[in-house]
Design goal:
Low-confidence stretches: none
Strand order of the largest sheet: 2-3-1-4-11-5
Helix content: 25-40%
Shape: flat
Strand content: 25-35%
Bound molecules: phosphoribosyl ATP, zinc ion
CATH architecture of the largest domain: 3-Layer(aba) Sandwich
Oligomer: single chain
Structural class: alpha/beta
Mean pLDDT: 95
Number of strands: 15
Largest sheet: 6 strands, mixed
CATH topology of the largest domain: D-Maltodextrin-Binding Protein, domain 2
Distance between the termini: 26 Å
Order of helices and strands: EHEEHEHEEEHEHEHEEHEHEEHE
């Protein structure tokens, strides 16, 4: 049995549970319990505020945790980062009032910066030889310049619309973050084996995300060109069709390039194109 700390509510809760479910692990949602044992896998979920997850894993109260990289770095938690999970993407940025004459980091000298991430900010200031004062605020950091608490902010940015709504512009990125699976150091042997299995399942899940399976009929004469357009994982699967001079080609593409690939293969004569979701890619 391995215990995994998960955010009880908030931005990472749903996708953390979804990730577990997608790799075949069912746990009850935190609405019912603080701790929930999986019915079909040796895992127990412990639901916590995200701020507490790095320390709880470092102390070994939970052996694993799912939390934003930003929290792990800010708290300098002595844990291993076992996997990047590809959701909860955001960045920690410095932002200044839109109308300011920002020309580079030296602008911050002698200025006040509001943030909930003082350790990451102080390290950035030290590394860049900047002398600014750090004002620690725990919520609504983006309003600090407007109310006169600070001249600038350093905060989490995702779409950037909160900054725009508060008359701010993003000027420097300090950290690119996403949800990560963290593990306590010196896991017992039996838990290491469970972690290995989880990592194998997660890698398949992350790999298959945003992938589409393409099937089509193709004139035999266009095959070489089609293979150039659709290289697939090793090479595409090609099968003969009953009609002379035609074959069937199967391949996997990134959803982001699906329509461009479809345009290219149609142009070389592909017909009857089917697009299917990919559930898992086992590497
Ligand atoms: O209650 P608990 O303490 O558990 O949660 P919390 O309120 O401290 O954190 P929560 O749930 O807001 O965020 C959890 C994690 O999600 C963060 O630590 C990040 O790793 C990640 N994440 C991803 C984000 C965002 N995107 C995000 N956009 N966390 C916060 N934001 C905020 C941002 O600060 C801004 O004010 O959302 C606002 C909107 O962002 P824009 O740029 O899309 O407008
Ligand atoms: Zn929090």
């Amino acid at each position: 049995m391995i215990r995994i700390a998960i955010q009880s509510k908030g931005r990472l809760n749903e996708e953390s549970l979804q990730l577990l479910s997608s790799i075949g692990i069912d746990v009850d949602s935190p609405k019912r319990k603080l701790v929930s044992k999986s019915r079909n896998y040796p895992v127990e979920a412990l639901y916590l505020r995200d701020d507490d997850i790095p320390a709880v894993v470092a102390a070994g109260t939970a052996s694993l945790g799912i939390v934003g990289l930003n929290e792990v770095v800010e708290r300098a938690a002595p844990v291993e980062i076992a996997a990047r999970l590809g959701f909860g993407e955001c960045r920690l940025c410095l932002a200044v009032p839109k109308a300011s004459d920002y020309t580079g980091p030296a602008w911050f000298n002698g200025r006040r910066i509001a943030t909930s991430y003082p350790n990451i900010l102080r390290k950035y200031l030290d590394d860049n030889g900047l002398d600014a004062s750090v004002e620690v605020i725990t919520g609504s950091v983006e309003i600090a310049p407007a109310v006169g608490i600070a001249d600038a902010i350093m905060d989490i940015v995702s779409s950037g619309s909160t900054l725009v709504a508060n008359g701010l512009k993003e000027v420097e990125t300090l950290l690119e973050s996403e949800a990560v699976l963290i593990a306590r150091k010196d896991l017992p042997e039996q838990e290491k084996e469970i972690l290995e299995d989880l990592l194998f399942r997660i890698a398949s899940e992350v790999e298959s995300r945003g992938k589409k399976y393409l099937m089509m009929n193709l004139p035999q004469a266009s095959l070489d060109e089609a293979i150039r357009i659709l290289p697939a994982m090793r090479s595409p699967t090609v099968m003969p069709l009953a009609t002379e001079g035609w074959c069937s080609l199967h391949s996997v593409v990134d959803a982001s390039e699906l329509w461009e690939k479809v345009r290219q293969i149609k142009a070389i004569g592909a017909e009857g194109i089917l697009v299917l979701d990919v559930d898992k890619i086992i590497l």
